[in-house]
Amino acid sequence: MSSAETNLGPKLKPAQSGWSELWLKEDWWAIWIGLGIVIIAYALFANGDSLKWIAVTPAKWSNVEQLGAHFSANIPRYLTQFALWLAIFTGATTSLGHSPRRFIPAFVFLYALSIAIFALGQWDQANKYNLEPPLVALVLGLAISNLAGLPRWLDTGFRVEFYIKIGIVLLGATLPFTLIAWAGPVAILQASIVSIITFLVIFWAGRALGLDKRLCATLGVGGAVCGVSAAIAISGAVGGKKEDAPITITTVILWAIVMIFVLPLVSRALGLPTGIAGAWIGTSEFADAAGLAAAQSYGGLAGTPGIAGTSDQAVFAFTLMKVVGRDVWIGIWAFVLAIIATTRWEANATGQKPDAAQIWQRFPKFVIGFILASALITFATTTYSLADYNKVVTPALVGPIKDLRTWAFIFCFLSIGLTTRFRELARAGSKPFIAFSAGVVVNVALGFVLSVYVFGDHWRNLTR
């Protein structure tokens, strides 16, 4: 990632404190946009309507004619969605101090590529080749950035942190507290064990190699929770250097891509039931998109000789472990590490008494949006059973929000690729990769033991 764009969004000057932060800081803009989408979606749902029309995504297709027919029939929806994204993002980035003359053409380019990537991900053979849209976006972006190159001024529209923060707020809407309760104690317990131990292993491995505590914390949570989202949240929470998040993101994605192939391959060789394999993948993968691709890939083997269970069990177990169990730790780690960094690390380094206001300034505010979005959807779904939630709430309320979240994640992953220059990241050396890899070894082994032996009966008999 370019040095100019690693900390996307200008630093606030001292005068830009207090109430002015509400429109001069990226975190708050992410909250206003994300919560605005959730509130509108809920209002429509409460009145028997849905956000589905504007949350358009490419449909499943098997031939070019089907794809062409879909776009031909839905041009007004895509144009409207594009216009809304453009208006919202241009207004926000202009308030943050970025030139609309540079942002607009960059976002047009970004959205056009995103449509193509999303459409490729909807190909009926995409799962077979692990063509998950966010990962395709990352690889394509890396290829363009490092092989072809783009004018640096286009980076104005490739707002990595901005898009992922909006995506995290929308993620909260897809994780109501009721869903966490439905996940049950096993999923939460297993996810908690893995999150804590993986973090500690990576953190102390990094410290043993002489890495800065802030980078160690960013790497640790990147491996323990959800790589891209966690890297950005934690780097800000601990006051990390501008290169800490890009280093972590790159390392996470490399291992996530490896695990797409390794985990299903080993699961098949061992003949693991689909529910157990899904839980192991959810425990040991490092990115939601990569893990979902691996779980879907293994679920497709259900019913073949030696593979017990259903395809739904693989995806459901993965969702409980990764998307519900581990991802909710983003806010917990951000809060805890913001306190530790402010009261311990920096206080010891400067000898100054820590100020509680510094913890608030350091805390990634978009995590508040994540919590509020989750609370709102929790309020909206308290009267529904899990079956009714899946039948009524998901298609009309949560589904459209999830589709818009996917757009935000594609924008983010594509922007990561388009602003990542390998020659600049190479300066970090091999130590961050070694420290993270130590966590990978422990994470995969621990996840296997927990999924197969400790909680094997639960995952083998998993039902929705």
Can you walk through the features of this model?
With 464 residues, the protein is mainly α. Helix content is 74%, strand content 0%. It contains 20 helices and no strands. Mean pLDDT is 87; it is low at 1-16. Helix 2 (26-46) packs parallel to helix 6 (160-173). The two termini are 41 Å apart. It is globular. The protein has one domain (21-460). It has helices spanning 21-24, 26-46, 64-95, 100-121, 133-148, 160-173, 177-208, 213-224, 227-237, 244-270, 274-284, 288-299, 311-326, 329-350, 356-362, 366-381, 386-419, 422-425, 431-454, 456-460.
Q: Care to give the gist of this entry?
A:
The radius of gyration is 21 Å and the shape is globular. Helix 11 packs antiparallel against helix 19. The chain has 20 helices and no strands.
How many domain units?
A: 1
Measured as a percent range, the helix fraction is: over 70%
Report strand %. under 5%
Backbone structural class: mainly alpha
**H-E string:** HHHHHHHHHHHHHHHHHHHH
In DSSP terms (H or I, runs of 4 or more residues), the helix count works out at: 20
Number of strands: 0
Shape: globular
For the biggest sheet, the summary is: none
Q: Which regions are unreliable across 5 or more consecutive residues at pLDDT < 50?
A: 1-16
Whole-number radius of gyration? 21 Å
Average pLDDT level: 87
Task: Please give the alpha-carbon distance between the first and last residues.
Answer: 41 Å
